[in-house]
Amino acid sequence: MLLFPVLTICLFDDRVGAKFFKQLNRKESLMHYRFHRLAFCALALFLTISYDSRCQGAGVTVVTHGLNSNVDSWVSAMTAAIPVNPSLPGTNYTTYNLSFVLDTNINAYIPKWSRIAGAHPLTTDSGEILINLDWRQWAGGSKSVYEISWVVAYVLAQTNFISELNGHAVAELPIHLIGHSRGGSLVSEMCLDFGTNGIWVDHFTPLDPHPLNNDGFDSNPPYTVVDAPVRTYENVLFADNYWQTAAFHGESVAGAYNRQLIHLEAGYWPDYYGDHFDVHLWYHGTIDLRTPTSDSNATLDTFERSYWYESAEQRGTNAGFCYSLIAGGDRLSTNKPAGSNTDMIRTGYNQHWDLGAGSTNNRTALPTYSGRWPNPIKVALLGSSVIQYGQSNSVGFYYQWARPSSESALAEIFIDTDHNPFNGNERLLGQMQVPGTGQTQVNYRIVPFTVSSAESAPGTRYLFVKMTDGSRRRYSYVPQALSVQSGGPPQLVITRAGSSTVAIDVYGTVGQRIVLEVSTDLSVWQPRATNVLSSSVWRYTETVSTAKRFFRVSVP
After folding, report:
1. CA-to-CA distance for 127 and 461, rounded, in angstroms?
2. pTM here?
3. Is 485's pLDDT higher than 80?
4. pLDDT tens column, 252-275
């Protein structure tokens, strides 16, 4: 049958061959270890979980499975766990299943999407889109991942595929690709397919990658297909790879932060391939921080929390998904969570260009690069995170647009009340024309902006960069939130309004939140009244006695 463009997204489970019980002596040692760890596990259950307060929404997270699997179990459980993560900005999200469906009229598989959870993507406040990629028809080895990847990458870049996006392509948002076993090969090849069309991938996460009959796995009977090698291509900003060697093992990936998982007792035990499956359960535990948590096939409890993760990984709260845009972990960290002879986190950061981690060229070159997509790669607020009306600030960003420098794209800075650039809450703050970078360069630009009452009411706001060449566009939110304040300090005028009454007039800016405070000794102050100014002056009256009383006004 023909394979037509189809899109699906999910995480993968390799169930290869029959299931076998692991050796009895392993079970005995496991039970012995459980007994001696019990007191520690009970105590560790109450440890406080802390997270970086920065967060960045409006992205797409694509999770896919591998050999002889589908999205019906732990894959769907993984995407369902992402909204539970405390770092997801906002309160709602969108989850799709994207799968290949046979069209009997043309005798070919075509892409179909269905929203299975969350809200309409134009109404969410997180802007996050979660996709379960289901390629079960060929996951048994009847097709190589080469034949799947280009179809998925093609569909993600189309503006008319998911009608709910109202003319937007999924690939306009920062992309996080996650794939297990053969799925690691699939998402690696998707990175290449995106790259040859000029689209950057923000985050690439293979989980125990195992391409059939490639990368040294050259004897995988009865499978004859040859999957794509797992590579970290030059259009990938950050890559992290989690792998093991105990059962149907994966591999290290050059250019990624490689974390070899040594201790994977329990979990999927006694499944013969349990350690292979435990890799995605380990990652699941870094998304859903509750204990216990389940991926619908196996459970991660207090034992795994204390035994599977290194001390620097803080029982899974400082590992794995922590380095996603959603969780906002430090990708440039020099920490080596697994020990002195292992990778630093920043090892996985793109160093083909100096984007903050230096230049060591830890990326595989793309074979071709013919795309026209303008990419904001990395964005940041350069000034203070607190701004008053009329003050200046700026956003800096690295970008790549593989066009000659004689051509120009438009870079725009928007202010938003949430993390969704598609729902109409955004307001333009500043813009500039930026030249093409060619295929071999990355440029850096600074866009200045000011904020007035026309663009934003006071409060916490979010900034994003939009780049467009007129037909293609991409978005990226600034990780730092911006606190907008309405103006300078308010003024206080006090007059007598009667024999026992005073009138307190507060002069300020519309929208300014003020607190009127009172004291009898100029030392201890107590709040008297709070108000958000609806006009330039607010009058507060108070009955006074013969005791001395002092008033002041503050802006919280």
Report:
1. 15
2. 0.82
3. yes
4. 999 999 999 998 989 998 887 899
